[in-house]
Design brief:
Arp2/3 complex 21 kDa subunit ARPC3; globular
């Protein structure tokens, strides 16, 4: 069984991280910025698969952690990840890991991809919300779960599901085109 990543795999992983960075720059500022990051994460996972997609997400986050301005608002650095909305960015890793696990257990089927992306989004929301509550409480005092959900999750559910549907459509076509070229 082949375990090493090829040069082509590494290029695809890097391109996935670049796509995620570019999509993060498309931003509408709110408490949690409305970006196209989740669209990119869904696209990267569905196009590259669980392993390479997750590695691409980790690369994106590592680039941001060392200060490369890959996050929304052309920001970067550990302060972004340690800030109140950093948990949602770190939550992308959980999205990737769940996708990878589902793909490994159930195969790379469209149904599996969609269900695991929805589940991953829920994990991302849960982790990001808990993170937000802890960091916000440390800076400004305690905040209730209902308040945080109304700021950080509820306004994003429908747009994120639309981004998921769009990403699955785009990624499926990219995969089909890539197979035709191979």
């Amino acid at each position: 069984m082949k375990h090493a990543l090829s040069t082509r795999d590494l290029v695809h992983i890097a391109l996935g991280a670049v796509l995620t960075a570019i999509c993060s720059w498309i931003s509408i500022p709110t408490v949690v910025p409305f970006t196209m990051q989740t669209f990119a994460v869904f696209c990267v996972l569905h196009t590259l698969g669980g392993k390479k997609g997750t590695l691409s997400i980790i690369l994106y986050i590592l680039l941001g952690a060392i200060g490369v301005p890959v996050f929304s608002g052309f920001s970067g650095g550990p302060g972004v990840l340690l800030g109140s909305t950093g948990g949602y960015i770190i939550g992308f890793i959980f999205m990737g890991l769940l996708y990878w696990m589902a793909e490994t257990l159930f195969g790379a089927k469209l149904y599996t991809a969609i269900v695991s992306m929805v589940g991953g989004l829920i994990l991302c929301y849960a982790f990001g919300t808990a993170w937000f509550m802890v960091v916000y409480a440390g800076k400004s005092g305690p905040v209730g779960l209902t308040t945080v959900l109304s700021w950080c999750v509820l306004p994003f559910i429908v747009p994120d599901l639309i981004k998921l549907a769009l990403a699955v459509t785009v990624a499926s076509r990219v995969k089909t085109a890539a197979k035709a070229l191979a």
